[in-house]
Known about the structure:
6-stranded mixed beta sheet; 5 helices; 23 strands; Immunoglobulin-like; transmembrane helix
Amino acid sequence: xxxxxxxxxxxxxxxxxxxxxxxxxxxxxxxxxxxxxxxxxxxxxxxxxxxxxxxxxxxxxxxxxxxxxxxxxxxxxxxxxxxxxxxxxxxxxxxxxxxxxxxxxxxxxxxxxxxxxxxxxxxxxxxxxxxxxxxxxxxxxxxxxxxxxxxxxxxxxxxxxxxxxxxxxxxxxxxxxxxxxxxxxxxxxxxxxxxxxxxxxxxxxxxxxxxxxxxxxxxxxxxxxxxxxxxxxxxxxxxxxxxxxxxxxxxxxxxxxxxxxxxxxxxxxxxxxxxxxxxxxxxxxxxxxxxxxxxxxxxxxxxxxxxxxxxxxxxxxxxxxxxxxxxxxxxxxxxxxxxxxxxxxxxxxxxxxxxxxxxxxxxxxxxxxxxxxxxxxxxxxxxxxxxxxxxxxxxxxxxxxxxxxxxxxxxxxx
Length: 414
């Protein structure tokens, strides 16, 4: 290749690269920062992950820093930054109950918060290290505790809207999830979060619909907040049936051929999905999570050939449930029994993705830890029993002393 051709190619590559940079910068040129800082209202359910994009910033700012305040004007402000050697957080590395400082990440000027908790509700600011703010959000994380489940197949209906003067309290539902199983009867559901409409809202908070914000928004006064405290998120569940994809049928044919060409009398058992083995001690609790699943995903559980439907196994349906599915799509087994042995299959978005072979044993050493809920329960019950015995002992002796001093009862000899 001649020198002239090489020069032309380098010039063209440099022009395309410069065009790409200009296009990225034009995104912020088209969105000027507001002269008066406003707060965009956003609501999510607990344990969900969300992203807050920084919609505007000056062109001369190469990187942004995010700030968090529990309330507007609070003296305590958390600085969220990925600089100074911080490693980017991945969703799979986040543990439940971790502090927000280890559950966030900043990518392309956007803030990502993983497994958000109600304590993460507050105000989020996009700005610089010097404290200059460009864009802000009013985030409301609503707890799933006390969530009301409604099963449409049983004729149940969602909670009706509430009216109190100019205050209107209602539930805004998300879209229906895909069917959680294929080829058999499955279920689909959608979450509903608490919202209200009132003219007595702070004008500094931007609303998608006039005078409408989520119930936990900072725009809601303390007086209105007490009136909506009893309104919890809702969950609608209904049955569905969808066919499986052709790809899965082809996979079944390949497995059949594999079994056919195996030696007669020693055909191996080939699982359709990856199987993980777990051994659990008898009487202890177990929580199983579906790989790659999030609370907003359609997740289903099967034990061997038994389908665990939410109409029977959803948390809160029965207070005495030993096996149940929580609102974060996790399968709970309390006080493991011998008949819990088997393979638990996990469906995600209508596709079976994993299996867990559970073995229950009554032998072996089990490390005692106060982080184990069964250990804490045993210690609490033991202490309560000792306190009760001590209280009865002291009461009997006090009564005996009173009787002896006031000659109200005969003397007891021991």
